[in-house]
Amino acid sequence: MVLAKQWVLKNLPIPGEPFNFDFTDPECTFELIEKELCSNQLKDGELLLETHYLSNDPAQKFWISSRDKNYAKGVQPGDIIPARGIGKVLASKNKEYSPGDYVSAKTCWTTHVIVPQSSVKELRKVDKDKVGKLWWYLSVLGGTSLTAYFIFFHYAQLQEREEDYGKVYLISGAAGAVGNICIQLALNVFRASKVIAIAGGPKKVEFVETFGENVVGVDYKDPEFKKKLIQAAGGENTVDYFIDNVGGDILEAGVVLLKQKAMLIACGAISAYNDPSKFVFKSYGYVLTKRLVIKGVLVTDHTDEFPKALERLSVFLTQGQISVLNSATLKDAVGDNFKNVPLIWKGLFNGINIGKLITEVKKDE
Q1: Within a domain: residue 337?
Q2: 91 and 212, same structural domain?
Q3: Which of 92, 132, 245, 318 could form a disulfide with 268 if both were Cys (CB 3.0 to 4.6 A apart)?
Q4: What is d(CA 252, CA 7) in angstroms, rounded to the nearest whole number?
Q5: Structural domain for 100, as ranges
Q6: How does pLDDT run across 306-333, given as a tens digit for each residue?
Q7: What top-level branch of life does the organism fall under (predicted)?
Q8: What is the band of 72 on the pLDDT scale with cuts at 50, 70, 90?
């Protein structure tokens, strides 16, 4: 028997209002509860997992609050907060998994979870001995790298060939989990002639420029951001691909730089997650005048292709085309610190991370 700590939804978020992180307030969005779980509770096909690492993703805000059934079913009061993570199988009634196996799974904000048979198909075994750290499966070999992979190989439909080399890329949220992998793929796989990398603050600008001399970092917090962005690109109408993880004002500033018939790849809108009024596109006229191609990215559309994509990402990692160095920021939620799980996730929207923001729930053995 284990005593699981679980963060559940206490009150539905009010549309347009920030989440309430005051855990002493009856109107708080989240609540920490404890629940006894044991192997005797398992039904055929189920697993009992122990969480080791949690992924922090902007998309969770939609998972929690969205009523858009095209995107997520939403979370109801009393439900455990959804999250991807890495866990260890403690007990199993599924012939495909044995105690001691490590898996990538929807572990949720909980120290332990019973995975129902209906969700087992979403699990992926991970080999602890093949990587330096288990959390690599949430960063360079996880969902964010998969997102970056599909941006290039599926949405942009690029191939490792001469006609796809030498392009100019604009990447927003460039110091983040998806953004920094996009920089590396653009430079090291598709031989970008230039990457304009938008990040927040001097430290993050310095970080993105460490990837290579063809990377020009631009600080969106700079009062002269728009002017410096145009300078970094070498003028308007210079960018072939705009990979946007932010939306809002940064999206507006970036569209100006796109060439005729360039591609805008919409991967995220983190600027608007706390302020829905920023879900606007004032520069829509450029879609017509520049004849832009716009594609929206959801990595979950490509689950059948994950094994092949992960094989290629592993090759890129081995060959040094992507790097685990500075690919993640780890925050401690071990033991009593599990009470900080929501606050760590909140930090994602305040820019506390370089690379992937990962919550450590249990120390590696």
Answers
A1: yes
A2: no
A3: 245
A4: 37
A5: 2-139+327-360
A6: 999 999 999 999 999 999 887 899 999 9
A7: Eukaryota
A8: low
